[in-house]
Amino acid sequence: MQVFDMFRLAFKALKDRKLRSLLTILGIMIGSAMILALIASSSGLSAGVQAQIGKMGANTLTVSAGRSFGPPGGGGGGQSTFQLSQDDVNTIKSFQGVSDVIPYYSRGVTIALGGTSTPATLTGVDLTELFKLYKGLSLYDGALPDPYDPSAAAVGYGIAFPSEANGTQLASVNGMISVTLENSKLTFLVRGILSQFGSAMFSNIDDMIFISPQAAQILLKTSYFSGLYVITDTPDDVTVVQQHIESYYGTNVRVMSPSSMLSSVQSITSQMTLYLASIGGVSLFVAAVGIVNTMFVSVMERTREIGILKALGYRRKEIMGMFLSEAALTGVMGGILGTLFGYALAYMMGGAFSFSFMGGGGPGSRGGSSTTSSPVFTPELIVFSLLFPIGVAVLAGLYPAWRAARMNAVVALKYE
Amino acid sequence: METGSAPAVQTIEVTKVYRSGHVDYPALRGVSLKIGKGELVSIMGPSGSGKSTLLNIIGALDPPTSGRVVIDGIDLRKLNEDKLALLRNLRVGFIYQTFNLIQRLTAIENVEMPLIARGVPEKTRKSRSLKMLSAVGLERHANKRPTELSGGEQQRVAIARALVTQPALVLGDELTGNVDSKTTRELISHIVRINKALGTTFVLVTHNPDVSNMTHRVITLKDGLIEKEQYLKRIDSYTGL
Q1: Each residue of A149-172: pLDDT tens digit?
Q2: 8 A C-beta contact, residue A123 and residue A104
Q3: Fewer CB within 10 Å of terminal CB in chain A, N or C?
Q4: CB distance A313–B81 less than 8 Å?
């Protein structure tokens, strides 16, 4: 018997029981789609988070006052009375392996632009230093604000061109922007607009208003920093410097490095992927049980047909092959539909798969930051999504097919 | 029966015992017979006499409890399950009272089934199946499903299917049991014609004297044994003898 004929007959048999076949295929489809969508979404999230972390150099640490996962005034944890001052900048600068320390001030503000109020972050930092830290960040238009002019600011791309405004420029160079900081209104002259950059270390650079540290000190009426960027001589020094800072300050500071963040994020996302894939796996298992059930019913209903096939000279392996082909076709159709549906589902789930990281690192991360990402479909994942349901279906069909092949011809022919 | 070569069918002291729980039910109690190539034989007898059991054993569908069955010189005891299936496909055709057609397939697809098992290419098997359907006068109904055909037409499809592989032996189990007398006569005439034209050996289990009367020999079974054999006609037009 030729394989093509085997599949042709199997297809006819499936077509003969349309509704039942469709329901079985639906079961497979849902399982397959779930696995694909969940893996692609969590892989996408993982990739998105990694890309954010990767935007900061591998030799950079962020230090903020506060206990682990709880920056001061942030939304994520315990309070601390400790505050970072210029003395701490000098102290950390003196540590072996540290090449530079860039302090920053950061406050959440509300910005009135185009008739609407949107939250933003007022960040006081030396922008020339920040450009070194974030590769690819540069001036899009205008110039850097004068460090000694407290009313001069540079704005992130997202403030000048808010996505809600559909590309309309709401802030321009030499224009004014109004900011509400803790119930007091401030007005800044926009001196420059930064290039589009996106998020890095869970801080959205595009949604920031940058002023000089000197201006920030005056406006915020504080000499204490919100955090420090610590740049080490080489990426290899990061761990030693991190340990050094942690042992020196104890729980008074929270130190984060891209690599430690990456490993914790990877650990979380891989566990999440496993967990979510397991959910998909369970649904596929349920679908497999459905196939076993459908196949058994089919074998029982077609007992007489099996007897006929035996009388006509079909061998056991051919009868088994015919039933397995039916299971395989169910898997093929479920796999194809599941992959298509899973593809769409992954995009639909995109919003639900945001990753919240409370007080990641850097300005603007104080209240916690979240990232959403596009699902990642690797060729391996697509192939897996297509082949796995077929494998499951064939495995599920194995026993019923074997039972069919072993049936006694005479008994089968007498079956009513 | 004069045969120049091995008989089409030979059974030697064939017994068949069915067991239900601890009780044995003997269906055949030592049946020995020879059927020559091209012979048209009917097996008669009351219900429970072992006719269908003997037919299934001759058709290699059911093994005997003891004794030997030799088809065309091949001892069935020496064949495994797969080889028995191959023998059924190549040398034996079955026709049943209930037609045993696959309902979801069309007439021509049903006729094709034994050829599919043999791996015959689609074009060849289609033309052979159509030819066989023409031989039983059903070429116009080739694409109809069994449910769209009358009982007699369905049985003719079954005959076409049994003959499409040009088997040396065709076994019929009450093949006129589900059709009226007019259709019975038509079916008989088809079988006689094929028997004469192709020299196919037919063994037909029947209760119907109209069927047995047109065969060369009537074997009557009773209680699992051959009660009598009656030669009705000379075989003068078959090949292979």
Answers
A1: 878 899 988 888 887 777 777 888
A2: yes
A3: C
A4: no
> Residues for chain B: how many in total?
241
pLDDT in tens, A24-59: 899 889 888 988 888 888 788 777 777 776 666 778
| A189 touching chain B per CB within 8 A | no
* CA-based nearest residue in chain B for residue A7: B116
Name the token pair of A344.
């769409």
Interface residue A321 vs chain B (CB under 8 A): no
pTM over 0.80: no
Residue B163's closest chain A neighbor by CA? A312
Contact between chains at A312 and B56 (C-beta distance less than 8 A): no
Contact B27, B17 (CB under 8 A): yes
pLDDT in tens, A87-96: 999 999 999 9
Measured N-to-C along each axis, helices A303-311 and B81-91 cross at an angle, to the nearest 10 degrees, of 70
Chain A residue with minimum CA distance to B122:
A5
Give the residue numbers in B contacting A (CB under 8 Å), as ranges.
Answer: 56, 59, 61-62, 81-82, 85-90, 92, 94, 96, 100-102, 104-105, 113-114, 116-119, 122, 161, 165
Contact at CB, A16 and B104, closer than 8 angstroms: yes
What is the rounded CA–CA span in Å between residue B216 and residue B39? Answer: 7
Contact predicate A262/A137, CB 8 Å: no
**CB distance B100–A413 less than 8 Å?**
yes
Measured distance between the N- and C-terminal CA atoms of chain B, rounded to whole angstroms: 10
DSSP A179: E
Q: How many helices (H) and strands (E) does chain A have?
A: 12, 14
SS3 A159: helix
- Residue listed under structure tokens 């994942």: A381
Taking CB atoms and an 8 Å limit, are B100 and A309 in contact across chains? no
The span from the CA of A322 to the CA of A309, in Å, is 11
Taking contacts as CB-CB distances below 8 angstroms, the residues of chain A near B88 are: 310-313
Which residues 6+ apart lie within 8 Å of A287 measured at CB?
A24, A27, A28, A30, A31, A334, A389, A392
For tokens 């030697």, the residue is B12
The count of other CB atoms within 10 Å of the CB of residue A395 is: 15
Whether B203 and B172 have beta carbons less than 8 Å apart is answered as yes
pLDDT at A74: 38
How many CB pairs lie under 8 A apart between chains A and B?
70
Paired strand residues for A52 = none
Q: A15 contacts in B (CB within 8 Å)?
A: 104
Q: What is the dihedral of CA A385, A391, A393, A398, to 10 degrees?
A: 180
User: What average pLDDT is seen over chain A?
Assistant: 82
The 10s digit of each residue's pLDDT in B123-158 is 999 999 999 999 888 999 999 999 999 988 999 999
A366 band by pLDDT with thresholds 50, 70 and 90: very low
With CA atoms as reference, report the closest residue to A317 among B112, B82, B92: B82
Tell me the fold of B9-231.
Rossmann fold (3.40.50)
**pLDDT reported for residue A267:** 80
> Which residues does chain B have with pLDDT short of 50?
1-4, 237-241
- State mean pLDDT over A377-390: 91
Put simply, whether A185 touches B (Cβ < 8 Å) is no
In this predicted model, what pLDDT tens digit does every residue of B75-99 receive, in sequence order?
Answer: 999 999 999 999 999 999 999 888 9
